[in-house]
Amino acid sequence: MNFQFREKERPDDFVSSLAGRMRDYPLVECLSGEYEMREFRPDLIKELLNEYLIPSRMRVFLASKEFTSIATEKEKWFDTQYKKEYLPEELIEKCETCELIPELHLHSPNEF
């Protein structure tokens, strides 16, 4: 079995992930279970997008050395400084009512 666009990983990491998948998939699906989609379910895709891909559920991550002066917490393993705060309700409302931008769209399929 060949996964053309799958990232390369170290063999020991690959075996470890396979062992973990043995709990979730039948043995014959251990390699493909995480990646193979057996049926196209546009209704499910739409439901998930409408439920989870909404402004009130978004998270914004900003990373820069410039923010260290306002950081209030430190990450446990790498000692990275960070700060957590809720997005202002006003910003969430703006995002929920914003207009679509016609220039932001998927290109037409390549006919070649």
What would your notes on this structure say?
The protein contains 3 helices and 2 strands; from the N terminus they run H-H-E-E-H. The model has no long low-confidence stretch (mean pLDDT 88). By secondary structure, it is mainly alpha-helical. It is extended, with a radius of gyration of 21 Å. The protein starts with 10 loop residues before the first helix and ends in a 16-residue tail after the last helix. 27% of the residues lie in helices and 4% in strands. It has a domain at 11-36 and 55-96. Strand 1 and strand 2 (81-82) form a beta hairpin. A two-stranded antiparallel sheet has the order 1-2. It has helices at residues 11-21, 42-52, 89-96; strands at 73-74, 81-82.
Largest sheet: 2 strands, antiparallel
**Low-pLDDT segments, ≥5 res:** none
**Helix vs. strand class:** mainly alpha
User: What share of residues is helical?
Assistant: 25-40%
Average pLDDT taken over every residue:
88
> Which strand order do you get reading across the main beta sheet?
1-2
**What are the secondary-structure elements, in order, as H or E?**
HHEEH
Number of strands: 2
Shape estimate: extended
Cα separation of the termini: 27 Å
Write down the Rg: 21 Å
The number of distinct helices, counting runs of at least 4 residues, comes to 3
Estimated share of beta-strand residues: under 5%
Question: Could you outline the blueprint of secondary structure elements for this entry?
Answer:
Blueprint: H1 11-21, H2 42-52, E1 73-74, E2 81-82, H3 89-96
Antiparallel strand pairs: 1-2
